[in-house]
Every structure is written in C-alpha cells, then in structure tokens.
C-alpha cells in the first residue's frame, strides 16, 4: 500500500462510524458539483491565479479546512444525517446560478456555483452539524471573486484623500476626477491604484480573524469596520506619498518607489497595523473550543429538527435540481432574437453626418454585438457629437453589453474614467480623459423592448426576464459622446441632439429595424 493510500486509510479509520457514510457522500457530491459547473470553476480559478486582486483566494480552501479541523474534536460528537429542508438552500443556490446564466452576470453564476457546496453540505449533514460547521461553510463564499464593481468608487475616494493631503503638505495641485496635476506633472489614480485588491483581501482576512479571536458580536463588528476603513485610508496616504516624493525626487523615482511599496509589502504593513491596534481587544482565549457540541446537541431546533431523509433520495433530488437549471439555461441561451442584416445611422434634422475624426482615437467596446456603428454629427453651431450604436441578438456569455469593461470605456484603450458626468435622463453619464489630456463625456443608454435605461442592473433584470420566459429580445447600446471636459456643456449638446431625434427609444427602434 502506498504512503498516500495508507494516509487516506488512516483518515477514514479515524472517522466515527456515524460520519463515514455522510462524509463519503459529501465528498462525492462536491466533486460532482464542481465537474457539472466546471466552466464556472475554471473561470474563477483563472482569476485566482492570474489576477493579483484575487490571489488571496488560493488560501481560502486551506483556511476553511483548518477551521473545520479546529472544530473536529467537538464535531465528531454530533451525528450527521440527510435532511430534506436543506434542498431549499440547494434550490436557492441553483436559482442564483440560473439567473446569472440568464443575465450574463458572472458574479451570480460564480456565487451560485460556490453556494451549492455549503448548501449540499447542509442537506447531507443535517441542521446540528451545520450549526457546528456554519462559519467554515460560510467562509467558502470567499471563493467568489468580487470587487471589480468597487473600483470606480475607490478611485474617487483615493483621489479625494490624496488631494486633501497634497494641499495639507503645501503642494499646489488641481484635481480633475481621478487626475491630480502638480507642478511636476499629472498623476492618475488608475484602476490598479484604487486599492481594491487590498480591500477585498483584508475583508477576507478580517472575517477569519473576527471569528477566530473574538466572541462578542459587537467587537467583531467593530473590528470589521476598522479593517475596512484602514486599508482605504492607507491607500490614499500611499498615493499622496508618491505625489509628494515626486515633487523633490522626480516622477520616475516616485513611480519606482511606488512599485516597490505598492504590493504585498504594503498589504503586509497594513495588516500588521490592523492587528497591532486590535489585539488587546481579542476576547477569545487560546484554549476556548470553537463550538460547544453539547449545547448544539441539546438545543431545541423546533420544526428544523424534523425532515430526516434517505441519503440516496436526497442525492437524486439534488441531481434533479441541478440538471433542471442546466437544461433550462442551455435552452434559453440557445435562443436569439431576429435582427436586420444591416443597420445605418439615420439623418437627424438640424445635424449633418461628417467624417469621424476624433482628437484622440476612441471606440466603445461591444464584444459579441451583431452590428456596430460609430459616426459623428455636427449641428449648425459647429458642435459635434459622436454616436456609437451596438445591436445584440441576445445577452449571453461573451455578448454582455452591461458587463464590466464593456461600453464607453474600453479598459485596454488610452482612456480612463474621470468621474461622473452631469445627470442625463435614462443614461449612465460619465467623464473620460484620454492620454491625460483629451476630455470626453459619454452618456450610455440601453434599449430592451420598450424600455430605455442607463442602468446596467435594469439591463441584467431584463435579460433574466427574457430567459425565464424563453422570450429573447434584441438589446441596443447607444453611446452619445461629445469631446469636452465640461459636463454641463456635454449635457446641453446631448439634450439638443435628443430633441432633434424625437423620443430616443423610438429613434433607436427605427434605427435597429433597418429603417
């Protein structure tokens, strides 16, 4: 017998007899769920390994396993059993995955795929064992890569902290969105400098620490709030330090220094600071058990104590739920709405189409669209407006107009987000800055059915509705973009263009109908 086989045999022999069957079924069901949702797990694994924001997730399975080992001396006193009500959680996780598959919202897909693991554990192990394993099972949800949605807000927060400190340190500076101009140059709080990678890693770490070293829920909540605020403030201080050093040592020296500091060294220093300021408030003794098995066994669970199931039937029911959502998703995603073979930008009264000649190359990103148009209009006052239209036959993987990185700002281009634009009805309004010098406003509209909206959330909900009802509708993305750094001027140009087109939704319907 090989050493590995002997080790496995020793682990199996160490399990109480009442745990062997449930443990084997749990391992088998988890392996099956990972295989059945392999595209989602592969996508997540790619992000864990290749995206620095999510490298910390590689430690989550190890941390969860260690948390189980800390509870094992108590857990082995509890008797697991299959439990029918656990299928409610299995169905809920499968539904979240299905809605993510319908909308092209990867966060939902990933959340659902991961949530099926703890949900199936609840169903296969029963309510009392679940109480003992509640935190390790919940901690598995940190396997879901999240945080990209926070980048724009964190960029703005970091820029505001930085400019405040720059002024306080006596350096003259002007802020324009995420760009800070000083006597030695212009500094951009780019996406990579937003601090999101340290924030999401700190949240995962702080959650682990809060459970391990605190017993009081008030102290846990206070520690979590502190652990969120400190990295955000520290990142603003780091950005200010780079700008301040550049004033005397030059931009290149400051950039090199920042690249050395801005990495896991910076995160380690912030982590040490948080722990150093918090350790005296820890209220769990080192030898305190993580759970009280006797209290869990004696607890009156009321109706939850009923519902014991036969394991094989429960496994078959779980398989049926998973198979149903996957078949439904496959059928819905195979459907497409009909779209014309050709579309053209129409004439607009009071505006003439002219050659598209931007001061700096700009083109929105619309991966998976069946048609794309980009043109320029000019009115009688000489004002120009760039118009981009993308038409989708369906929203699905690889064709998601509301996905991160799609729309007016192509992350791979020379353009950067520079703050919110002036409010524009039915649109997402934002200001962009290209190569640190060229300004541009962008108002993004989505047309689904008879609804015109600038909300990506509304777009996702529309996709869910279409898939649930197996009723695909085309989606149109429209971006109206004047070259200007003045939000109010941009809003005025866009308002005049909309007045000339008439109701924008109706105008888009005619455009995308090929007429």
UniProtKB/TrEMBL annotation:
Main location group: membrane
Domain Methanolan biosynthesis EpsI: 320-504
Matching Pfam families: DUF3485, Exosortase_EpsH
Keywords assigned by UniProt, alphabetized: Cell membrane, Hydrolase, Membrane, Protease, Transmembrane, Transmembrane helix
Membrane topology of this protein: Multi-pass membrane protein
Location within or outside the cell: Cell membrane
TM helices/strands, residue ranges: 21-39, 51-70, 82-105, 125-144, 156-175, 195-214, 221-241, 261-282, 314-335
Domain of life assignment: Bacteria
Protein name: Exosortase A
Lineage: Bacteria, Pseudomonadati, Pseudomonadota, Alphaproteobacteria, Sphingomonadales
